[in-house]
Amino acid sequence: MDAGGGGQLFSVDPLERQAARGHGVVTSMAAGSDVIVLGTSRGWLVRHDYTFEDAHDLDLGSGRSGDHSVHRVFLDPGGKHCVATVVHPGGAETYYHHARWPRPKQLPRLRGLLVNAVAWNRQSITEASTKEIILGTESGQIFEMAVEETDKREKYVKPLFELTEQREGIKDLQMETAVVGNSIRYYVMAVTPTRLYSFTGIGSLETVFASYSDRAIHFMELPGEIPNSELHFFIKQRRAKHFGWLSGSGIYHGELNFGAQHSSTSGDENFVENKGFFDYSKLGDSGTKPRSFALSEFHFLLLIGDKIKVVNRISKQMVEELVVDNTPETSRGIIGLCSDASTGLFYAYDESSIFQISTSDEGRDMWQVYLDMNHYAAALSHCRNPFQRDQVYLVQADAAFAAKEYYIAASFYAKMNYVLSFEEISLKFISIGEQDALRTFLLRRLDNLTKDDKMQITMISTWATELYLDKINRLLLEDSTVTTTNSVAEPNSSEYRSIVNEFRAFLSDSKDVLDEATTMRLLESYGRVDELVYFAGLKEQYEIVVHHYIQQGEARKALEVIQRRNVPVDLVYKFAPDLIMLDAYETVESWMMARNKLNPGKLIPAMMRYVSEPHAKNETHEVIKYLEFCVKDLNNEDPGVHNLLLSLYAKKEDESQLLQFLDTKFGKGQTNGPEFFYDPKYALRLCLQEKRMRACVRIYSMMSMHEEAVALALKVDLELAKAEADKVEDDEELRKKLWLKVAKHVIEQEKGVKRENIKKAIEFLSETNNLLKIEDILPFFPDFVLIDDFKEEICKSLKDYNSQIELLKQEMDDATRGADNIRSDIGALAQRYTVIDREQDCGVCRRKILTVGGLHQVGRSYTSVGHMAPFYVFPCGHAFHANCLIGHVTRCSSQAQAERILDLQKRLSLMDRKAAKDNGTSVNGESVMSTTPVDKLRSQLDNAVASECPFCGDLMIKEISQPFILPGESDEKASWEIKPQPTPQKILPMTMSI
């Protein structure tokens, strides 16, 4: 078969002509990491390094004559370490060569042993050391060896094992290691012409092979003869994935699984999986067997004659035949094949040439190979594009459809995107009436669509919704046909419940892609009310959900919906009337849980509806409970809430709660706020209507209608009236008036003997704390009452009046004596004087107070002695010239006060001049005029400037706020500033050249 239309999988190209470089013919070849080492018939090693485009010739014969051809050459995957065996008439010798050495070194411990195979430890090998390697000899022995590049000789050579049951030469070896805990497990495979041996164990190689001295050896024996038995591992990422053994009967191969899960601390382990065998008869070459072979990831490369036949390892079919162009006539044809595990290249060689075999994406058609073998999982893992995956899904779907496994077929059809259209697949299920499979197909198809396919997702989801509803109805009809009743009852079968739960899960998953209106119409048309409510909840159409639960009488479920965080609060107000009538307790509890999130004022209509219904006397009034919660716990200030609570209290027979509510001042915590929030007029009208008289008295009192409160209290309780009369404390006249009302009521209401009435009335006077006298209540008694009945009380009253008169007389005498004292003080004040020291200084100008001349006089009206300037002397001892004091007070006073002082000074000077002009002047310049107006102005000026000492009074205290530097002293301030001295500017001479 042809592996596919992508061109050839393998190609052969000549790499080197005359590769032996004149050292005989090529007898063996090895490759690794772009390095090729050839062994020749004359005992030479020819090393071709294609990385550096270099070649080296290495003589293994040491100049000896005679035949000494290279038997086998082995090269590690890194291309650094090389082992070669030379055969000569005297026996066999083994050499080791490092890439940095100029010439190889003989390994004397292996002298005489014909080495056919070398297994490298790929996980441990380094550039400087081979670490442990295994050698197989023609005599059936297996050795362990290690070579250090620095030692230039073998570090050790240990015998590990020897075939004793059937002595055959070891033709090929492979080794792999895996870490198990803190130890290393070794896996070794060896082949002879007829057998494949496998060894495994934990520890060292010596320990592993020693353990087979007392246990059976695993081997596979195949009959037949072959020129060369070969064993190859396919290496990928430095790990062996599968193996192939070229035996006499065919190629035995399998997968390799190394790892801890297949290992144990003791015992043997079979690490080969998925074994297979390829018979040479499938090649069709009349029994011709391959001389050599190579192993790729998916193919065998078999050398038959000068042709390389490529066989697919999985399908066992030959896919290509490569012809090697071997031009030299003297050549005996292709000798063998070898592979480079590090680069994935293969080589063929004859006596003088090297050919490179390259792969070109050999796994590109493996999906088809696995598909033809019905290995669907493997086929999918090797698909490269969606079209290939669709081909695999199509084969699986068609097979399931033909086997009437429609659900499985629907799942596979849903995964396809290109091979079959959506319509074709849907029609396949519709044509056979498989609605359930069609629904499965639609659901799986939804899983495979991307978010960009919004329209397709919506349409398919809507179709799936209808199919779900159809399935549910069919189950209902089937159940109704089984039962004998005419009504269709919802079944309790597991299938029905399962499909309903599945449908609800589908609605939940698809709520964002389903069209809301269309889906609700579908649910309604099929009569699925529960699912309609469920979907409405998913779409946050909570009004529909709540309305449904209320109709079903399930108040608790409705409240649970309303209490969700994302439900708008308006729904609480909208459904409050219905919910409180349905379950008042649960509704009020939900309101109380909401606390400040609700506005109680908007719930008043619902509460009014609840209040209008009759309730048992011993029933807890839920509305009162909620209103008390709002008022007391939430500190609600809504007048409507307070009025409603007051009205409910008023309708109760027990008036205690109403009176307590009226006495509680709920607004007392607010600044400048009202003491209560209810409407007192409404409260009064309601209490009068309900005949709650004590409450009416309280309300009258709160409204400061004390006369009405006392009048109403007298109809209810005398003690209540007395208490109301005593509440007026700031208005003595009103308080007396109220007590007179109470007294009148007491006198009029008392029945019996007149003397008893008078006695009780007189006792009543003592309760007023002397506010009422006997003369105040006398008018309330009948005219025929004898004065003797009041004799004692009247005498007591007259004594009180006499005491008051004596007290007033004493107060008048005290006032007269005080007035006389004041008059004598005033007369003495005119004669008061003080003594001034002749050295006394003015407090402002610091000049002598008794200075003669030189000072301008304030006015002629001031009395002066000779040419002495007028001055002021204060009791504290400070003295000031008149002008100095006026100037100082003017500066330190406010602008209005200063203007007033200056105005008085000006008016006083004008009057002086006018008086001098009208009456003339005296000899010493003093005016002779009437002093009455002048004295008045002077008195005003004295009060303005000399009411107190400026240094000891309030004026000095006010000067604290005055600035140290006044605005007019800015020039003085500037004169004290320290200015920097100007530094002379340094002038550099400048010369100019012309």
TrEMBL record:
Q: Which PROSITE patterns match?
A: CHCR
Q: What is its main location?
A: membrane
MF GO annotations? zinc ion binding
Give yes or no: UniProt keyword Coiled coil: yes
List localization entries: Endomembrane system
Q: Where are the CHCR repeats?
A: 595-755
Q: Name one GO cellular component term.
A: endomembrane system
**Where are the annotated coiled coils located?**
755-825
Q: Which positions fall inside the Pep3/Vps18 RING C-terminal domain?
A: 871-958
Q: Which InterPro entries match?
A: CHCR (IPR055358), Clathrin_H-chain/VPS_repeat (IPR000547), Pep3/Vps18_beta-prop (IPR007810), Pep3/Vps18_RING_C (IPR058919)
Per the record, the GO terms for biological process are: intracellular protein transport
What is its membrane topology?
A: Peripheral membrane protein
Q: Per the database record, which ranges form the Pep3/Vps18 beta-propeller domain?
A: 9-358
Q: What keywords are assigned to this protein?
A: Coiled coil, Membrane, Metal-binding, Zinc, Zinc-finger
State the similarity comment: Belongs to the VPS18 family.
Q: What name does the UniProt record give this protein?
A: Pep3/Vps18/deep orange domain-containing protein
Supply the source organism for this entry. Answer: Urochloa decumbens
